[in-house]
Amino acid sequence: MFLGEFEHTLDEKGRFTIPAKFRAKLASGAVITRGIDGCLELQPMDHFMELATKVSNLPITSRNARGLRRLEFSGAAEVEPDKQGRVGLPSNLREYARIDKQVVIIGLFDYCEIWNPETWQEFKQRSYDDPEALAEQFASLDV
Q1: For 114-126, what is the mean pLDDT?
Q2: Full-model pTM
């Protein structure tokens, strides 16, 4: 499972190092694609294939389904960590997430997100500024 928050630097080739504790789960391949909140998603291949099947089964006649397909698939890139645990971040995905030299990788149990560090800090600040509103927001999830 993927847990925690890690900051890494992109090298001159646009690669970053996957946290060591995440590498085994990604060794057989992964997909990086655009996320919803201005971040990127790093998904193990099996997780991506489950999601891809669900998305592909949505009716093409639905505007929302077409939008989701475009978001998930058009910018997706298959990646496989090298022997040092590095993966390349394609330029179109770096541009989408406004990533330049640093990334923050956060574990979300069954996949990861990759953030521009400033965007991640802003997101956290907005999320945690009002604990009462946050509690109400989460209460609606029935967890």
Answers
A1: 95
A2: 0.91
